[in-house]
Design brief:
- This protein folds into two domains: 130 residues, N-terminal domain of MutM-like DNA repair proteins (Alpha-Beta Barrel); 123 residues, Helicase, Ruva Protein, domain 3, CATH 1.10.8.
- The protein has seven helices and ten strands.
- A hairpin with a 3-residue loop joins strand 3 and strand 4.
- The longest helix is centred in the last third of the chain and has 20 residues.
């Protein structure tokens, strides 16, 4: 699933090419893309609307339209939101929706697994979109200090599980949780409440650093993720533990291991990320 760096990259690559454009018409090819509207109603509402701004909240893209409407896009597992500068190019597989612009160009939503969603809401009215409405703080915002992180970690759940909880921290997923924990030297099964102040500070620094580095590399492409221009990311070449099971740790040469934490595959170095299971309070 695209995480914060991937969604932010999509936002940054789409912003210069679609902001200011007016949607001439749209077509929905997969009705389940729209959990709260019919295709004709949805297209009727976005027709002749001008895109004023694109912002990101967690893993959601919020496309601001004139008339106080917002188009909310969640890419889910395999969603791609790609701008085509020329209209009516051959239609590739798995296109769920198309938006034609008045002055040429198209925006296409491509989704092989078909879990992606789109919502049309009044500006700022997110109560009907539970995942967006309940999001925790943005990890790259100025207000996300290590003290804020410490409050979010006050739980006996495994730290990896806490980091994946979108109501605690917005935008983190499997890739960057593993990478941040590795950099901080924290075992993924360690209960959040067991982390000391120094560990929380290191984890906070690691979360911010890995997210910024991934954005600078245009995200991680394992298989399906593409930028808004259809390009792949590059951060997959810089991963230190994620999907490196059986390969040597870059710090100590110990082989990277994979376990399940909260049902999610989790990668770590058993030497660099040690944990004393007796720490249970």
């Amino acid at each position: 699933m695209p995480e914060l760096p991937e969604v932010e990259t999509v936002r940054r690559t789409l912003e210069p090419v679609i902001v200011g454009k007016t949607i001439e018409r749209c077509e929905i090819y997969y009705q389940r893309l729209l959990p709260q509207a019919g295709a004709s109603q949805f297209c009727g509402q976005v027709r002749n609307r001008t895109i004023r701004e694109i912002v990101r909240r967690g893993k959601y893209l919020i496309i601001d339209l004139n008339g106080e409407l917002e188009l909310i896009v969640h890419l889910r597992m395999t969603g791609q939101l790609i701008y085509k500068p020329t209209q009516d190019l051959p239609l590739q597989k798995h296109v769920s929706a198309r938006f034609w612009f008045r002055d040429n160009g198209e925006l296409r939503f491509v989704d092989q697994r078909k879990f992606g969603t789109m919502y049309l809401t009044q500006k700022g009215d997110y109560q009907g979109i539970h995942g967006l409405f309940t999001l925790g703080p943005e990890p790259l915002a100025d207000g996300f200090t290590w003290h804020v992180l410490a409050e979010k970690l006050k739980s006996m759940r495994a730290i990896k599980t806490i980091l994946l909880d979108q109501t605690k921290i917005a935008g983190l997923g499997n890739i960057y949780a593993d990478e941040a924990l590795y950099r901080a030297g924290v075992h993924p099964l360690k209960p959040g409440s067991c982390l000391g102040g120094t560990e929380v500070k290191k984890l906070h620094q690691s979360i911010v650093a890995v997210l910024k580095e991934a954005i600078a590399s245009h995200g991680t492409t394992i298989k399906d993720y593409r930028t808004g221009s259809g390009d792949t990311g590059n951060f997959q070449n810089k991963l230190r533990v994620y999907r490196r099971t059986g390969k040597p740790c870059g710090n100590c040469q110990t082989l990277i291991e994979r376990i399940k934490v909260g049902g999610r595959s989790t990668h770590f170095c058993p030497n660099c990320q040690r944990w004393d299971p007796e720490c249970m309070d």
